[in-house]
Amino acid sequence: LKFPCETSAAMAGIISPSPTALYFTSNVGGRRLKAVSWAGKSVSGNVIRRRNFRIAAEVKFVNAEEAKQLIAEEGYSVVDVRDKTQFERAHIKSCSHIPLFIYNEDNDIGTIIKRTVHNNFSGLFFGLPFTKMNPEFLKSVRNEFSQDRKLLIVCQEGLRSAAAANRLEEAGYENIACVTSGLQSVKPGTFESVGSTELQNAGKAGLITIQGKISAVLGTVLVCAYLFIQFFPDQAEKLFPPS
């Protein structure tokens, strides 16, 4: 549904729109009224500004249990937009993997410097890959899903899925849902998953994970030592004589 509105005096000629657009929305129940503004030029060179209004779908943000219900009862298909590394660690069974970001293997000098800095900090400590926006994202989704399909978009923290849902909504998809806070908020057993770890742990890697394991081991040792001293004080005194 569109309501064209001319805002310039030039009313004739062929319009050549600019590549940028400004959007704002207002909620109308489960739908929203979107205004799309863009500028162009007529054949005579006069600048024309046009604003079109259309009704668009509202992206649903749901928790894990609600997402499970959407899949089972409403036929939503799961689209995982995480990078390859997190997807391989754990993913929902029978989902489609269409990453919003892909590994950045460009070899220009600027990218090489950024990749080196990244790998020595974020990559080393958090296990995050060096990525760039996937230029084939929308094309890949269109190749697999028609615009009338119901799609549940998931990522690890909820940020990439929200960004992906926005891009899909702009591309004409109207039945989209996202898991709030991502798969890190999913309790074990909520979804049938595939991989070497639980869904909520798929984002954990790098030295932070190793440090966490070391801390867990040291914590266990200290607890055991404390219990040993409490329940067997005589033996503890022999092993750890006072100085």
Distance between the termini: 85 Å
Q: Which structural class fits the helix and strand makeup?
A: alpha/beta
CATH arch. level architecture of the domain at 60-210: 3-Layer(aba) Sandwich
Kindly report the CATH topology of the domain at 60-210. Answer: Oxidized Rhodanese, domain 1
Beta-strand segment tally: 14
Binned, the helix content reads: 25-40%
* Shape descriptor: extended
The CATH class of the domain at 60-210 turns out to be Alpha Beta
Main sheet summary: 5 strands, antiparallel
Mean pLDDT: 73
Strand content: 25-35%
CATH superfamily of the domain at 60-210: Rhodanese-like domain
Query: How many distinct helices?
Result: 8
The low-confidence runs, each spanning 5 or more residues with pLDDT under 50, are 1-30, 206-218
What's the Cα radius of gyration? Answer: 26 Å
Q: What is the element string, with H for helices and E for strands? A: EEEEEEHEHEEEHHEHEHEEHH
Pfam families: Rhodanese (PF00581)
Keywords: Membrane, Transmembrane, Transmembrane helix
Protein name: Rhodanese domain-containing protein
Organism: Capsella rubella
Structure in words:
- 36% of the residues lie in helices and 26% in strands.
- It has helices spanning 64-74, 84-89, 109-120, 122-126, 137-144, 159-170, 206-231, 233-239; strands at 5-6, 16-17, 22-28, 31-41, 47-57, 60-62, 77-80, 90-92, 96-97, 101-103, 131-133, 151-154, 176-179, 193-195.
- The strands form four sheets. Strands 1, 2, 3, 4 and 5 form a five-stranded antiparallel sheet that branches. Strands 6-13-12-7-9 form a five-stranded parallel sheet, with helices on both faces.
- The N and C termini lie far apart (85 Å).
